[in-house]
Every structure is written in C-alpha cells, then in structure tokens.
Amino acid sequence: MSEETKKPAGKKKFELDPRLAEYRGIWVFIEHERGTVHTVSWELLGEARKLADKLGVQVAGVVMGAPGEDTRRFCQEAFYHGADHCYLMEDLLLKDYRNQPYTKGMTDLVNAYKPEILLLGATTLGRDLAGSVATTLLTGLTADCTELNIDVEIRSLLATRPTFGGSLLCTIQTLNYRPQMATIRPRVMAMPKRDTSRSGGITEHKLSMIETDIITKVLEFIPDENTNKVNLEYADIIVSGGKGLKKQENFQLIWDLAKVLGAEIGATRPVVQSGWVEAVRQVGQTGKTVRPKLYIAVGISGAIQHRVGMDASDVIIAINSDPNAPIFDFATYGIVGNAMTILPALTEAFRKELSARNAEAVAA
Amino acid sequence: MIHIVVCIKQVPDSAQIRVHPVTNTIMRQGVPAIINPYDLYALEEALRIKDKFGGFVTVITMGPPQAENALRKALSFGADDAILVTDRAFAGADTLATSFALASAIRQIEKGMPVDLVFCGKQTIDGDTAQVGPGIAKRLNLELLTYISSIVSVNTEKKEIVVQRRSEGGVQVLKTRLPSLVTMLEGSNEMRFATMPNMIRAARTTVKRWDRVAAGIEDISKIGLKGSPTVVSKVFAPSPKTVKAEIIQTNSGEADEMAATLLMKMFTKFPHVREQLEKSAA
Fold it and tell me: Class of B2-222 per CATH?
C-alpha cells in the first residue's frame, strides 16, 4: 500500500527464475453476468493481443460459468475479439459469482496451464476475484491500471496506474513471480474490431468442488432498475459541468444542451459533493472513466483528477472564463468566456444545425 | 458478545496533496493525515453491530508511529481497543506483504478473544487498490464479503450474517457464516459524532504498539520490501499534451457567432462527431 516509499527496481541485470520460465501466454478473464459479457473483457482482449504479439505468445480467454449459460458463445466471441484459445470451466456452482468457487477455479487453471500474465477488469467482480487469486497464488497484483506495456527483454508486464488521486502515475512490475496480475479500468483500453473470421481451440477443465464446500449462499439478486439508468461510461456524447457554473440553478443550462444533443450529463467531484447531480455522474479519478466521441466541459478547470477520467475523448470542447485554465492545454477547442451566455448560444447553434440536417434527410 | 476487528489506515488528505512541479515528488509537508474515509464506514458499521448485540471493537492499523493519532480518533468514536502494528521491517510493503502482516496481527488478537468479524473500508484513497481486505480474508480463511452496501442481519447464535453486496448489474443478497471479512461501500452509513466520555477515554487509553515479533511474525522474508512481489519501477507526472486547444475567436466576440464558428470548424475536421450527433439527437 505504501508503494511510494519503495525504491526503484534498480538497473542491474534481471534474470527470471528458471522455474518460472514455463509460464507462457496472456490470459484475460471473461467477465459475464446474466448472459452478457462485460465490455471491459473485450477491451482487455484487444490490449492483450498487442502485448502478446510483442512477447510472441498466445492470448487466451478464461470463461467460467454454469453449463448452458452461453459459455460456448462467449468463447466464440473471445476468439472474434482477439483470443487464440479459451479455457472453459463449466459447473452449476459457478452460476452466480461467488468468491470461493471462482477463486478456486481460477487458481486451479493458473496452476495447471501457467500463464505469464493474467488480466481482469477493475470491476467489483474483477477486483474481488483478483485480490483473492493473487493472495492464494502469492503473486503480485497491480490494481486499476490505465496503461499496459511489456519490457520484452525480461518478459515483464509494465502496469501503469494513477496514484495520489491521479496527480502522479506509477509503473509497477512483478519481477520474479508468476503470473503477473493486473486489473484494468473499463473504457481505458480501446475496443478491438470484432473479426468473425477468427477462431480458436477450447480447453475444458473441471471445477474440483461440491456445493457443500461453499459456505456463502446467494439468497437473491436484485437487478438495478433500468429506468433512469445513467450510462456514462459508454455514452458517445457527454456534456459535463464544473464549479465554474457557480450555482446549482445554472446547471440547468447543461441539461438543456444535453437534451438537444441526446447526450449524457457528467460532472466534476466538487459538483457531486455539493449535491448538484448524483454521484454516478462523476467523471475522473474517483468517478467514471469515459471516452465519448464528443466531451463538452463547461466551467471545468481541468485538474488532473478530472482529466484522467476524460482525456481519451475524441473531441473535447472547453468553455471556461479563465484563459489560463489547464483544460485549454488538452482540449480540442476552447471558448474563453462566460458559460452563462455561451451555453445558450451553443445549444441554439447545435439545435439549428441538427434540425437543418434532419430536415434535409427527411426531404431527401 | 461479538468481537469485531476494524482495519484502518492513516492516509494523507488527498484533496490537499500537491506534486512538486520540478521533482515530481509528493509534497507531504503540511498535508493533514486523516483516517482513510472509506474506513469510517467500516468502523461505524462495526459500532452499530456492537450497539445492537453488545460486543467489543478492536481497531488495528499498520503504519508509522504517528498513525497512533488515527487509532485515538477511532477510540473517540467508540472503539474499545486499539493496536498499532509498527516496525521498520514493514517499510515498503505492497498489498501482499501488508495483508500478511495484518493477518498475522489479527491471529495474535484472536489469542485474547475469538474474532467474529473483520471490517475494512472498500479501499484506501492513497493506494486505491482494494486488495488488502481480500488478502487478509484469504490468509485467515474468513468468508470474503466485498463492496457491502448493507448488513441485513447478524445471527450471533447461529454465527450467520446476511449482507447486500453491490455487483455490476445489481445487488447480491448473500448469506454466510462467521467469522467473515466485510469491506464496506461508501455511503452505507454516516459516522457518529464522538461523545465527550469517549473522547476522554480515547485520550487516556494506551494504544498498544506491536512490533514484528509482537505481531507474531518470525519470517521477515514475508514482510516489507522483501515480502512484496511488486516493485515500483517508475513514478512520473502525466505527460502534458503538446497540442493545446484551438481557441475560438471571432471579430464581434458575440456568443452566437463563436458557437457557429466552433460548430463549423468541428464538423469540417471531425465529420464522425456530426454523424454521431445526428444519431444521438434524432
């Protein structure tokens, strides 16, 4: 936990323990719930593909679940998204996620087939599982990464993550332990192209456990209500407001613009802390990471804590009264001025432009 | 009578942290140290269980000598006993080595009084790993319950607990046996105020200090830098983007003229944004 007090790895020549050399290949845990794979798993397969090509090894997906739960279809999809192979563990005990059987299954798979790198999404499930698996295997785990790379010479995963609230980044390595484990934030890695010409082999492995071995029981699952659901992470257009809007009432201008654009609403941490919008709308280090096609930042200074959550957006428009605000250092377009007059003008300009286009489309 | 151990960490208040612009190091001077905010939800939940069933709450932390202040604060909220696990040999510990040391210390606590529940925060605000809780649970063979939004019931006779656990698409209601380890989600409760009698008691209570040996650790290869599989190979500031924003300026400086200019420029250079907008707005 006190990573910052540690000494750097040092420059002396590193040699991998020969007993660990048999660990080969990169695995991605394919996370699914109620028949749907979490998108982060595909993002990780795309990233794993790049890393594996540097190492000259295979990418494998790990699919665990109950028989008949679309698990084979998930393997197929894993191939389409970059996997060469899949490890499949089917058992009724794996129907709902529970720490104990999933930890047992994953550690058994690792011990049997020995991957050098194991990646999981930094979701509630992924972080619960990764922490348990790493402790059971007594290996290193880097949490919530935003960037991965490989030191090819020593076959070492370079896992980079924000630290101290995003003000610094640190790169962490797991040298003489295998597998090298990391959880990666959703929406940080790009989604790979789905290629249906790809295929691969499946290795099945049994879970060596029976229900009476498992102490925790799932009594019920209460799905989130879909009404009013905020899906910021996967929004294509986001309009976000910061404390530069000064008053909660002024935040209405953000909603007005978002309505015209069909956009999601985002906010900075101070805005959420003041209760102007719900916590699920927070973008940044302690909130969501987003990568929309268009991000409009209004009254947001662009502090690093916010920036880390949104600077992968395709186009960023920044509106701020302070010409020296850091947001102008990385936005695509900037307007310096009072948000209270610029926002209505921008809303109107978009409305005209988009309705003209839609009218043309109808006429054609 | 239920015995609960709450693991806390003293952290720098991240809202006040600054990075030195030249050396890229954390400027800790003058940054106040606080109890990791997520741990307060864990402590409050433990105190509520104690209020309901009667019991004993032990707070424990691993850290430098000044982490004693965090423990004293926890005592003032109502914890009964406090243990500071502190030893130079722990320096440089990653999450694996930290969970080893804390698990070992909790085993020592158990020798005095069996432990029914261990509470941790969801994660810390400085490390943000969420790995130490699961690590302790695995090492002590406790049932692991992470991201808990609510404790539904505790049955002290049957030694059972029912909780609500946040998962990606909803809430799992889980039933398991004690002893278990719970990591509490933020917003699950609100920390009580310290009462005057508790504040006085906190000031008078001796915080126990355990070094490596007192914490039951013989093998120093499992703790500190030696016991940590991970190494930090580089710490750096995020690279500034070299391309700055194109600032939209017009002759009149009128808002509507600037808005129109912006749209024209953007749609010419990024036609895919226009396509997306036409889809989203429709």
Answer: alpha beta
